[in-house]
Design brief:
The chain has 449 residues and is mostly helical. It has 4 domains: 215 residues, no CATH class; 61 residues, Cytochrome Bc1 Complex, Chain D, domain 2; 65 residues, no CATH class; 90 residues, no CATH class. The chain has 18 helices and no strands. It starts with a helix and ends in a 13-residue tail after the last helix. Bound molecules: heme C (3 copies).
């Protein structure tokens, strides 16, 4: 009877051990590997690039990068996950982590193997993180002149955070997962205490910075590893040139579409891909090196309108086009055509209304827009306005007539009178002016840009 029960218990605990370790291995295979191969692909891009610009004389680092990326973190992931899964197993089935009963020397060796794997992985990870953070930063900093500077700083600053961060962070988890020796703290001697404090002093700021790199770079890893087009891209896009060459470029979705389509349209290139594969490859490129309409809106508009955009009126598409066109005067490259199209697509979706009147009556709305489209064509509407704000009507009319001479088709007498009156009307009402013609008046924020 007793024998029998013990036999049952042994069977049950064997089953639990099996379930715990296979679940850990399955998470690594099904969730870990799709992410890790993105790390490896980034390393491949980096090595290829260094080879082509001749600071690296061999491509042998590519396969090593793949092995380090895929296999390096495997012992760590499996050991730590298993330790997590043993928590409920211990509670509900009284089956504990067998590792915890092993001799200390064996556990230390196992830890050393796992940390060595992580150390090998830390290098490809740091390369990948530089790329991801660089890609994120690119969309935000194009506005300013110092792009190369920022990119260079990211390249230099990220590896010294990511490499020790991966090793120290990983070792901390392993310390717990392999069953740290539980000794009363009071018996610790001076050197052990000193070591413990040194660990906190180094690891807290380091791991905080490490977490920050994940906050910026991590979302791109998630996007790329969850894109179903990985295979469509990797199987097809490396047949004639290095597949990694695409990742040296950051493009808008429309620009990537052009690149992919160019391959099919150019008669001299014979590229055999099904429509779904073509779509998949394009989507993978977007996940790796591009931005959605919404994210583009965030970089181009929400950088200033952090929350104020929530109060925006709905506007007509042509009105949005004028507003975005006007801000593009500040940086025609940052707001280039493809980027403007993305912002406008988002604005149309979220703040578009083809019949919007901005709370005015139709006649006034249309008159204001006629005026704005005419007087905002060559310069800001408010140019030289201080002088004319106080001027009398004939003086303003004379100025408008002078402007009219610059047009290919001069204004009619009626239009001159209408524009002169409208000009004075909108200048007199700052709030109305700001709503009708955003970004026209130089503001404190705009100064110095
Ligand atoms: C059948 C051969 C072939 C295949 C397959 C191929 N390419 Fe190309 N690719 C070329 C050639 C040839 C050029 C150079 C054309 C040029 O520069 O005008 C090129 C140029 C490029 C460029 C640089 C030009 C640019 O517009 O930025 C990129 C990026 C690119 N290919 C990406 C891809 C992607 C992505 C795929 C998979 C969908 C792919 N290639 C598949 C032959 C191929
Ligand atoms: C450099 C900072 C800056 C950027 C970038 C910027 N704006 Fe503005 N915008 C302002 C300021 C300042 C105002 C006037 C004060 C306010 O309403 O927030 C303004 C006003 C507006 C208004 C009028 C709000 C109202 O009162 O009805 C709209 C609409 C608007 N911006 C749209 C955009 C859009 C769309 C973009 C992106 C293409 C954009 N802005 C980018 C600074 C900016
Ligand atoms: C075809 C381009 C063009 C259009 C359209 C245009 N302007 Fe001008 N504007 C200019 C140029 C160029 C100058 C600078 C030279 C000058 O003063 O004539 C200028 C200067 C000004 C000035 C400052 C100079 C002064 O006279 O004190 C004001 C104010 C002005 N424009 C208002 C307007 C108004 C209002 C309209 C709409 C009726 C308008 N502009 C339409 C090109 C244009």
């Amino acid at each position: 009877m007793n024998e029998n029960r013990r036999g049952d218990g042994a069977k049950r605990s064997l089953g639990t051990h099996f379930a715990v370790w296979s679940a850990a291995a399955a998470v690594y295979a099904l969730l870990g590997v799709p992410m890790l191969r993105i790390v490896a692909l980034e390393t491949e891009t980096f090595v290829q690039n260094q080879y082509e610009i001749q600071s690296l004389h061999t491509l042998a680092w590519i396969p090593r990068g793949w092995v380090a990326s895929l296999a390096g973190p495997a012992p760590f992931i499996v050991i730590v996950l298993a330790a997590f899964f043993y928590r409920p197993a211990e509670r509900f089935w009284q089956v504990g982590n067998p590792i915890w009963t092993w001799p200390q020397a064996v556990r230390l060796s196992l830890g050393a193997v796992a940390v060595a794997g992580l150390a090998a992985f830390a290098v490809p990870l740091s390369i990948a993180m530089v790329q991801w953070i660089g890609v994120e930063a690119y969309w935000w900093i194009e506005w300013y002149g110092g792009m190369l500077d920022v990119m260079e700083r990211i390249r230099i600053a990220v590896p010294p955070i990511v490499i020790p961060g991966t090793i120290i962070g990983g070792a901390t988890f392993l310390w717990w997962a392999l069953g740290a020796p539980t000794r009363a703290r009071t018996t610790d001697g001076g050197p052990i205490l000193a070591l413990r404090y040194a660990y906190y002093v180094v690891s807290i700021p380091l791991l905080t910075a490490f977490a920050a790199t994940w906050i910026v770079g991590g979302p791109r890893l998630l996007r790329a590893s969850s894109s179903p087009g990985y295979g469509d891209f990797t199987n097809n896009c490396g047949k004639c040139h290095e597949r990694s060459s695409s990742f040296n470029l950051i493009k808008t979705p429309a620009e990537w579409k052009k690149t992919v389509d160019m391959h099919f349209d150019a008669k001299q290139i014979e590229i055999k891909m099904k429509d779904e594969e073509r779509q998949g490859a394009w989507e993978f490129l977007l996940a790796m090196r591009s931005y959605s309409d919404e994210w583009t809106f965030r970089t181009r508009c929400q950088r200033c309108h952090v929350v104020s955009y929530l109060d925006w009126d709905k506007r007509r598409p042509e009105d949005w086009e004028t507003i975005v066109g006007r801000i593009a005067w500040w940086s025609p490259f940052y707001y280039r055509t493809e980027v403007r199209d993305q912002v406008l697509a988002y604005l149309g979706e979220e703040f578009g209304d083809p019949d919007a009147l901005l709370g005015l009556d139709r006649e006034s709305y249309e008159r204001f827009m006629r005026f704005g489209n005419s007087c905002g064509r060559c310069h800001s509407i408010s140019r030289g306005a201080e002088y004319y704000r106080e001027a009398d009507a004939p003086q303003v009319q004379a100025m408008v007539e002078r402007m009219s001479q610059k047009l290919p088709e001069p204004l009619s007498g009626e239009e001159i009178v209408e524009f002169a009156a409208t000009y004075q009307e909108v200048l007199a009402d700052t709030e109305l002016f700001g709503r009708l013609f955003p970004h026209d008046l130089p503001t404190e924020e705009d100064e110095g840009k």
